[in-house]
Amino acid sequence: MKIIIIGASGTVGRAVAEALSPRHDIIKVGKTRGDLQVDVADAQSVGGLFAQVGKVDAIVSVTGDLYFGPLAQTTPEAFRKGIDSKLMGQVNLALIGQHFLLPGGSITLTSGIVSDEPIAQGTNATTVNAAVEGFARGAAVDAWGRFRINVVSPTLLTESAEAYGPFFPGYESVPASRVAQAYVGSVEGPQTGRIYKVW
Questions:
Q1: Are the C-beta atoms of residues 52 and 37 closer than 8 Å to each other?
Q2: Could you tell me if 97 and 53 are in contact, meaning their C-beta atoms sit under 8 angstroms apart?
Q3: Which listed residue, of 4, 52, 92, 129, carries a Cα 20 to 30 Å from 36's Cα?
Q4: pLDDT digits (tens, 9 = 90+) for 171-192
Q5: Whole-model pTM above 0.85?
Q6: Calpha distance 49→101 (Å, rounded)
Q7: CB 185: neighbour CB atoms within 10 A?
Q8: H or E stretch including 188?
């Protein structure tokens, strides 16, 4: 299969590429690195990416920025960070990318455990991750028979535990290699409208 991974230079993106590359043709995309570059928050940039790549069997999104901070100090402008990047960025990839999917293709997006388990200073992350999951569940119904769409929801990564562990008290971390297997299941398996929770 020909698979495009957006966010391939990140910790999870690298693990996903490593897990899929032995069996598939991988195109690695990042904002500033990779085989190709894209700004997912810019629909024109996303359209240009797919025009370059052409038809693919699978789209994997492991990308998107979020805003973290105390609610009392959160402005509407700050809150838009996650809306524009992780939510609309991934929605852009799905809405535009669907027209470049080969029959029976798949789209895999990324949310996170805070959609179910909110953390302090993470209102933006909880909102955005829950919206990504809602989008995928709704799209799976509308896309039935054309393509599959799923979401992977990882918990705290072991590789990021030193930096982000204080925000996740009591959470057990998981290695990126384990998270990557959920993306493999989404790409190679039959499910659609599923939230793969790797907790």
A1: no
A2: no
A3: 129
A4: 999 999 999 999 999 999 999 9
A5: yes
A6: 13
A7: 16
A8: helix 176-188
